[in-house]
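Hey,

Quick one before I head out. I ran the complex with nicotinamide-adenine-dinucleotide overnight. Inputs first:
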Amino acid sequence: MSRRILILAHTGRQEAMQSALQAIELLREAGLTPVMMPHDATVVHEAIHNGVLSADGLTVESLNTESTLHDVELGMVLGGDGSVLRAAEMVRESDLPLMAVNLGHVGFLAEAEQADLDRAVAAVVNRDYLVEERMAIDVKVLVGTHLVAHTWALNEASVEKSNRERMLEVVVGVDDRPISSFGCDGVVMATPTGSTAYAFSGGGPIVWPEVQAMLMVPLSAHALFARPLVVSPESVISVDVLQRTNESGVLWCDGRRTVDLPAGARIEVTRSTSPVKLARVSMTPFSERLVRKFDLPTEGWRGTITESDRAAIEARERTRRDQDNWHQTLANSQGIRIVEPHHMAPRPEVVPPVTTPIPVVTKADEEEIVQVRRPAADEHDREKEPRDD
Ligand SMILES: NC(=O)c1ccc[n+]([C@@H]2O[C@H](COP(=O)([O-])OP(=O)(O)OC[C@H]3O[C@@H](n4cnc5c(N)ncnc54)[C@H](O)[C@@H]3O)[C@@H](O)[C@H]2O)c1
Ligand SMILES: Nc1ncnc2c1ncn2[C@@H]1O[C@H](COP(=O)(O)OP(=O)(O)OP(=O)(O)O)[C@@H](O)[C@H]1O
């Protein structure tokens, strides 16, 4: 039986689809069978047909009609972190390992960059990869004693306020003991994988992937004690949405799976029994990935590193200096400050939410409103007159 590889490409990105075609070709040449989700295959077919992608055609097996997830050996993801989270959701019912090639912005979960696509495919063909297990969490929503939702997450479960103008009142707990209650924008319950994502933005610690732990990070808590917590993977962590302000909340898992939380809802998080499997080609330490992806300064390090490591660090520092200089030149020349280095490229399929403009009230409008509200002089006198009844 031929070895099957599932190709999961970001179909909103031309580059990702073109790389998917390249990977498919290389796999076929090596005698492997590429498989695609029917929807993804249709999009790629249409893009070829419309001349958006350059290829003679697309020869892949269709998942669920010609093969199932259980017939597939590995999933290759061509996209950014969002694509990995999407792929993990799609293959959740199986224990298929995923190997990601970064065609997104950050690509923290990716194993290879676009330039290494050939090498990544060769590693798949030669079975030259290791499978790393990433802890996932099991997420339950209870209203009273009724289980209203049951889901999971690779990065995090975030309990957030639904009304932007109100705080969410919560009490957080560990192992059926209350820890603290406060008003906040939300609470993030994350895995070590998610520690570099939303939890990181909330001031949580970075946890190395091989550590087994769960994090609880309050977001903008109006409280003197609102420190991030790191708890045992055997614990049950919980957030109760308090009824005292009658504010509802919303639960998001990996920014993909969501459920509304009425006041009084309880969210319980435990370690999942099914981890997510990520296939790794290079054994680059997590420290190095962290430094590279977050572009951390490491000048002055005197530890034991090889000459090639040192050359790579120096090259990275040179690039950073060039970029800094370039940003400075741009900033000086145009009087602007660059604030979003990772998201300068426009994102496909992102439609800004519809907003209603806030009416601007001018001084003249205000005076007019006061005039309308002020009772006319005779009305005022009439109000003062004693009433017959
Ligand atoms: N304020 C925040 O930081 C914030 C807010 C909402 C969601 N998120 C994150 O976005 C994730 C969904 O990702 P998406 O790509 O679909 O949405 P997206 O396109 O809005 O991207 C969110 C950002 O988070 C990064 N990211 C995702 N997982 C990561 C990880 N494990 N380590 C480091 N960075 C990571 C992505 O690279 C991207 O830059 C959620 O799981 C959540 O962690 C972050
Ligand atoms: N094939 C697809 N079809 C539709 N949407 C997709 C597809 N693949 C990914 N997405 C969605 O597109 C969004 C952006 O995904 P992508 O993987 O490019 O992440 P990114 O945010 O651009 O990169 P990074 O996460 O590395 O910064 C995510 O919400 C993801 O779920």
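The chain has three domains: 4-134, 137-271, 297-331.

Talk tomorrow,
K.
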